[in-house]
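It is time I had a proper look at our fold encoding. Can you supply me with one protein entry, sequence and fold together? It will help me judge whether the discrete encoding reads sensibly. Leave the record below and I will have a look:
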Amino acid sequence: MTTIVLGASGQLANHLQQQLPQAAFWGRATVDISDPTRLHEALLDAAPRAIVNAAAYTAVDKAEQESELAWRMNAEAPAAAARAAATLGATIVQVSTDYVFDGRATVPYTEDAPVNPLGVYGASKLGGELAVRTLCPRHWILRTSWVFSEHGANFVKTMLRLATGGRPLRIVADQQGQPTYAGDLAALIGALDGTGAETALPFGTYHATGGPVVSWHGFAARIVERAAGIGLLENPVRVDPIATAEYPTPAQRPTYGALRPSAALTEVVGAGFDWQAGLETALAAIAKATAATQASPTP
């Protein structure tokens, strides 16, 4: 077997199926990553040459109550996968997050900036980073942020759903970061899956994101504006800014989560990240799918 992708139904996995058509995609029906011991055994039996971990516990607020499960899925499972990769001499790609930082910076974080997660989700993802970095020398850790797509559940699709209600949206304006189109991230991972990729891009930790820094409010406003521009929304609604204090959540979020893009990803692998272009792609795909659904005859 060549490549195994952990995670079969998420938004990143949907795009990876296009980039890695020969890969095996393991969802919960194949092996549950909340059982790291079983995951390790299954990977050793399958003996892939590459492992891509696109699975994770991503419910940031719920993780505060389900910390044990979050740690199993975000730290212990990557550790199990990394141990298997090291035994097999395989490569491993671990997808991480801006939540490993505390958000107190005023300029984008570099790869070597001090980490200091604020909650269980960020801490467990940092645990996954440390495990992969320690246990498997042949690794790429890709930190990204605010991932969206035409697939799965994400901020873009939530804003579109809420905007159809016609009432103004109230969106947090004092948290800043960089949205990332899942298709761009998948294209990078597809390039890393190529033979000899480790020669072109040294193993290590990279920031896989890009485009202008924006607030959640600014991102929402752009979504509504562009969706209306292509006819996806008949009546664009007003998007009002609010403070984080007006929308309290169980988990604390980084106030500033921007990551400085790793130049090597563009210079060596040719991967580009532009969330504004990615948003256009995602909205066009959603509009096409919506039109196809509306055109389908009612049974």
